[in-house]
Design a protein that fits this description.
40% of the residues lie in helices and 17% in strands. The chain has 220 residues and is an alpha/beta fold. The protein has one domain: TIM Barrel (Alpha-Beta Barrel), CATH 3.20.20.370. Strands 2, 3, 4, 6, 7 and 8 form a six-stranded parallel β-sheet that branches. A three-stranded parallel β-sheet has the order 1-9-5. Strand 2, helix 2 and strand 3 form a beta-alpha-beta unit. Helix 2 runs parallel beside helix 8, helix 4 crosses helix 5 and helix 7 runs parallel beside helix 8. The protein starts with 7 loop residues before the first strand and ends with a strand. Bound molecules: zinc ion. The site of zinc ion has 5 residues, from loops.
Length: 220
């Protein structure tokens, strides 16, 4: 990860650790934000139903040109209390575009998400996590990265995805997954069972850190 620009780390995790006794496994009232990128897609409803059955919420960073095809799934995400984020129009790497083109890309996606769901996202996640100061300034939205990368897109393995989350889970974590893979959708129910049994509460990014000012953020 580049250090050419400032990387702001929100310190809520330390606060939560203090409130919960400060030990790694003291997970009572310990919030964690599951995030799902690259949808909506054919497995999004499976993810949403698993969340709803557990009374859990998550954040979905959606791709603009998929909204019409999977409009029902996108609406289901919203109707069940989950948060939406912007993940660009067609998953282009924004740092390969001019700042103006990147801003246009994100704005077009905002309009697409709003047209289908009625919700205009307050946060975005740059594809591949690739961003820079010019993109941040041009886009003008908080850029939400992650603290646990499951690499579900590479393994396409349900058990590997489950293990990645449950072995790395910590208070205040932001977990990166992708709801366009059936292997990930199948992992969500067992992940939720495990985390809830350990006292974690699965919340949206909004509930974890609010809407931070513009800049790059991830969460420990
Ligand atoms: Zn992505």
């Amino acid at each position: 990860m580049s250090n050419k620009f400032s990387l702001l780390m929100v310190s809520i995790a330390a606060t939560v650790a203090t409130l919960t006794g400060g030990t790694a496994n003291a997970t009572e009232n310990c919030p964690i934000a599951l995030t799902f990128d690259d949808g909506p897609g054919p497995y999004t409803n499976q993810v949403v139903d698993a969340l709803a059955a557990h009374g859990a919420r998550a954040t979905f960073f959606m791709v603009g040109n998929r909204m019409q095809t999977y409009s029902g799934a996108a609406q289901h995400v919203v109707a069940t209390g989950n948060q939406l984020g912007n993940h660009s129009w067609q998953h282009d790497q924004l740092t390969l575009k001019s700042a103006q083109a990147a801003a246009d890309d994100i704005n077009r996606t905002q309009a697409s998400i709003a047209a289908v769901t009625g919700v205009t996202p307050l946060i975005m996640r740059p594809p591949y996590g690739e961003t820079n100061n010019a993109i941040v300034a041009a886009v003008g939205m908080p850029e939400i990265l992650w603290s646990i990368d499951t690499r579900d897109w590479a393994t396409h393995n349900t058990q590997s995805t489950i293990n990645s989350v449950i072995s790395n889970a910590h208070c205040g974590a932001i977990v990166l997954m992708h709801d366009i893979h059936s292997s990930t959708a199948a992992a969500v129910w067992p992940i939720l069972d495990n985390l809830q049994s350990r006292g974690f509460s699965m919340v949206t990014v909004q509930d974890l850190i609010g809407t931070p000012p513009t800049g790059r953020y991830y969460h420990q």
